[in-house]
Amino acid sequence: MSQTATRVYDELRGEILGGRCTPGARLREEELAERFGVSRTPVREALRRLEADGLAVVTPRRGAEVVRWRDEDIAELVELRALLEGQAARRAATGGGVDLVALTELCDRMEEHAGAEGRAADEITRLNLELHRAVHRASGRLLPDLLVRLIDVPVVRRTFHAYSETELRRSFAQHRELIEAIATGDGDWAAAVMHAHIRAAGATLRAGREPDPR
Amino acid sequence: MSQTATRVYDELRGEILGGRCTPGARLREEELAERFGVSRTPVREALRRLEADGLAVVTPRRGAEVVRWRDEDIAELVELRALLEGQAARRAATGGGVDLVALTELCDRMEEHAGAEGRAADEITRLNLELHRAVHRASGRLLPDLLVRLIDVPVVRRTFHAYSETELRRSFAQHRELIEAIATGDGDWAAAVMHAHIRAAGATLRAGREPDPR
DNA sequence: GCGCCTCGTCTTGTACACAAGAATCGGCCG
DNA sequence: CGGCCGATTCTTGTGTACAAGACGAGGCGC
């Protein structure tokens, strides 16, 4: 079983992003090691990687804990996402290298899941994330790495759970428009759509923080 | 002697940023451990931190090496710096919390060093970095962390060595203008100055790559 | 009774040892 | 003579033991 550290990392990361870890919770090395059935060494590495991702904070000699998000952090987060995802969309539109068919299919599947009202928010979230990442990948080498720290955040992952029917439809429409802008090669258009898309999500975040518990 | 890992990290980081490590050079754990007189454990941690900073790439089971920068990476780097440092300047101008006196003193000292033509490029680089960081710090909590990956790059650190007399003066003038914009609280002005400041540096980078060997 | 100091425990930091996968060099076969 | 296969060697990944610092509880002095 190779890549023990990566397994622990993925596991913990999933728990934090899924909101199954309460912010501020301590992450003791030995406890985690026992829980995952490994030694402290790979756990340490996993914790450092989480810190690099901005998901945990480790204080020297005092251990690691799940990162705590403050309100002003959320505001800054939305601003930066709007800026950087906008730039990613611009470069994706002008640089080529985007699989428009795959993007369209992601939209189709998202809208299907929205039709079937079986609390498909998790699946929609996953598909949405995949769509955004596809755009990021087409934007270069540095930008995707920067965006990881802004996208993989618990609060962002919960956005779709808070969307109203109207907001959901608007979001889907923006995805379609984004694809059209990219297909046209119009960088400004793509950036503007993405910018609006993110700001709209930010408004939902500000409006009702956690209307859906857990 | 506590914080062994941090010491190794700082040392290696300095070597990479100072250009004393050739890109692509392998970083073997045992070799480094012996060189620093420590065990492999803190060396490992240092290497992972360097990877998180984008200064090294580690391939599982194949070790770490000093990151290699391609030309298109540099172009993307300049774009992103212009965008994000511009945003940092905007927030610094509108948010307050900037020590304008300290910034002005940094400018004074930089210009003094430029007057004394004793190859003071390293010192100017250091002061310039400090000025930029002061602006970053005033911009929030997330942005400074993102900027680390764009600022602490070997190529950026060499910029001042490549500046002509004219470019140097223009750069200093932009610093002064930036401070004025921040003092006025004009976010758009501050962002525009910073944007131009970075783009100008980018032009120098593109024009003469490494006119000053080592 | 309150505050300070000290001792004990707990957790992380580092060193060391072993195991597993990768690269390389040599030999062998076609 | 060239290519392929195997063994050796080298390097990293993981487990374990020990040391050092931090936190808390308890006792002592004022």
Automatic annotation (TrEMBL), chains A, B:
The keyword DNA-binding applies. GO terms for molecular function: DNA-binding transcription factor activity; sequence-specific DNA binding. It comes from the Bacteria. Keywords: DNA-binding, Transcription, Transcription regulation. InterPro entries: AsnC-type_HTH_dom, GntR_C, TF_FadR/GntR_C, Tscrpt_reg_HTH_GntR, WH-like_DNA-bd_sf, WH_DNA-bd_sf. Residues 2-69 form the HTH gntR-type domain. The keyword Transcription regulation applies. Pfam families: FCD, GntR. This is GntR family transcriptional regulator.
